[in-house]
Amino acid sequence: MGLMYGTGPLGLEPAGTFNFEPPPTGWAVYLEPSPKRVRVQLGGQTIADSRRVMLMQESGLQPVYYFPPDDVRHDVLEPSDKHTRCPKKGEASYFTLRVGDRVVEHGAWYYPHPIGGAPPIKDLIAFYWDRMDRWLEEADEVMVHPRDPYHRIDVCSSDRQVRISLEGSLLAETRRSIALFESNLPPRWYIPREDVVAEIEPSDTVTRCPYKGRASYHSAAGAKDLVWCYEEPLAEVGRIKGLLCFFNEKVDIELDGELQERPETPWSQSVRSEHRKAA
């Protein structure tokens, strides 16, 4: 969500302007070495372990680790008959992964003959993140996808008056929020529970973020999963622990009396779907 995602400079909808002609929308590909030791585990065994892994970024996509072949266990790789073609990189070939009784069909891929103009990815091996058991960056387990080195989070105390309402009904009001500014996402306002006047009910929804941790959700004002909370956030964003945050896309937020425009993000689509169902 840094350079290549959302409103990032090489994302699908850049927020800024350039003084040069950028690549066509969606066509930017960037490969760079990562200084991290990265390990992949499957079936209780480490199947890839590298201190010279490469990080691939493509417009509109999350980063992907590509491993030198010498840093991958070849005894777990079985050639597959699957092939796909990417207009930016060429034809990909696949491996099925077999570790003991664990079999992951077409779980890894590589480009034996990248097209001209592609980054130097020949024979580097990538794995489907969600089909593996664990990923480690150094000694820390990482969830969801690799952490983007160009993704930034700033957490600031704010004395702005934050007023949150829905269809005219007040949900929360505070002058002691924690503002979280995250690359390519709208500002999020984390509010002490005492300053939330709406009745909130826990839901069974849980999401995970590689930068913040595990979020639990609450419903309020008849809207499911309107609020989320990180009860045990990662240390880097510890100041939001236990605070409540409303979806900007679903509620009306006033800052110092000024109504904020509801942002357009991937979560806006779910709001429109809910409205269509209600109609």
Give a short summary of the structure.
The protein is mostly beta strands and 279 residues long.
What is the spatial order of strands in the main beta sheet? Answer: 12-15-16-20-19-18-17
Head-to-tail CA distance between termini:
34 Å
Which geometry do the CA atoms define?
A: globular
Report the sheet-strand fraction: 35-45%
Q: Mean pLDDT score, rounded? A: 94
Indicate the percent of residues in helices: under 10%
How many individual domains?
Answer: 2
The main sheet comes to: 7 strands, antiparallel
Would you write up a description of this structure?
This protein has 279 residues and is mainly beta. It has 2 domains: 29-141, Metal Binding Protein, Guanine Nucleotide Exchange Factor, Chain A; 153-278, Beta Complex (Metal Binding Protein, Guanine Nucleotide Exchange Factor, Chain A), CATH 2.170.150. The chain is built from 1 helix and 22 strands. It has one helix spanning 268-278; strands at 29-33, 38-42, 45-50, 54-58, 64-66, 77-86, 90-99, 102-110, 125-127, 134-137, 140-141, 153-158, 162-166, 169-174, 177-182, 188-191, 200-209, 213-220, 223-229, 244-246, 252-255, 258-259. A 7-stranded antiparallel sheet has the order 12-15-16-20-19-18-17, with no helix packed on it. Strands 3-2-10-11 form a 4-stranded antiparallel sheet, with no helix packed on it. The longest helix has 11 residues, at 268-278.
Question: What topology does this entry show?
Answer:
Elements (H helix, E strand, L loop, with lengths): L28 E5 L4 E5 L2 E6 L3 E5 L5 E3 L10 E10 L3 E10 L2 E9 L14 E3 L6 E4 L2 E2 L11 E6 L3 E5 L2 E6 L2 E6 L5 E4 L8 E10 L3 E8 L2 E7 L14 E3 L5 E4 L2 E2 L8 H11 L1
Antiparallel strand pairs: 1-4, 2-3, 2-10, 4-5, 6-7, 7-8, 8-9, 10-11, 12-15, 13-14, 13-21, 15-16, 16-20, 17-18, 18-19, 19-20, 21-22
